[in-house]
Write a structure and sequence with these properties.
With about 220 residues, this protein is mainly alpha-helical. The chain has one domain. It is built from 12 helices and no strands. Helix 1 runs antiparallel to helix 2. The longest helix has 25 residues. About 35% of the residues are buried.
Length: about 220
């Protein structure tokens, strides 16, 4: 078993990008973020780095089917990170969405009461930190986040496609989707890493080289047949 020459080239690009991302994320250690959004974007970089690292290990070991399971999380992180960058106050709404989801695990009145108090304390910290911050107690869907991020097309196509693998859809389990994704997986993951690097470059003091050469390589490889 061997990869095509095109796959080898895109995997090398991904490896180069992932190395840069890992260094950038590590460079944030000990630094104080300028705001909560920048802090969150640092976590986005960390998450995408973990996904890309695992993807590379699996893909280079010819575990192609397993590697596909890591593409969706990377896309989701990029959509959320870009949404937070574009929409002030959205991070609090994201926190509320997670808090609401976590609450479904608690059945006893005492646990539910404590869970409610935890949100009130969090909300008070937000108001203390930034009295002007809009607090919207409404679940945020990833589709909405993609709209805020101005990445609706990536949600409609790439995200929905790779959800089929993580959700165990019949088309994914049967291998019917392999033909339409095998040549795209590494390119999509490389795009995710590039997006994460861009977020870090714009919103954090992470140490980064000139990213232009990486973007040029990705643009060229995307159009390989």
């Amino acid at each position: 078993m061997e990869h095509s020459s095109e796959e080898i080239e895109i995997l090398q690009l991904l490896a180069d990008l992932q190395k840069v991302l890992g260094i950038a994320v590590n460079s944030l250690g000990g630094m104080t973020p300028k705001n909560p959004e920048a802090h969150y974007i640092g976590f986005v970089g960390k998450g995408v780095n973990i996904a890309a690292d695992g993807y590379l290990i699996l893909r280079r070991a010819f575990r192609v089917s397993s590697s596909k399971l890591l593409v969706r999380p990377a896309i989701e992180l990029v959509l959320d990170g870009a949404a937070v960058e574009h929409e002030p106050g959205l991070l609090v709404r994201m926190a509320y969405s997670e808090w609401e989801e976590d609450g479904r695990m608690f059945n006893s009145p005492a646990s539910q009461a404590q869970h409610g108090q935890n949100w009130e304390k969090f909300e008070q910290r937000v108001r203390t930190f930034d009295p002007s911050c809009r607090i919207i107690r409404k679940r945020l869907s990833l589709r909405e986040a993609a709209k805020f991020a101005k990445m609706e097309q990536h949600y409609q196509v790439s995200y929905r496609l790779y959800c089929k693998f993580t959700h165990g859809a019949l088309g994914a389990l049967s291998g019917a989707l392999d033909e339409v994704t095998d040549d795209s997986d590494s390119r999509v993951m490389s795009w995710c890493v590039c997006q994460a690097l861009g977020l870090l470059e714009r919103q954090t003091p992470a140490k980064l080289p000139d990213l232009g050469v990486f973007y040029e390589r990705l643009d060229r490889l995307v159009f390989l047949s």
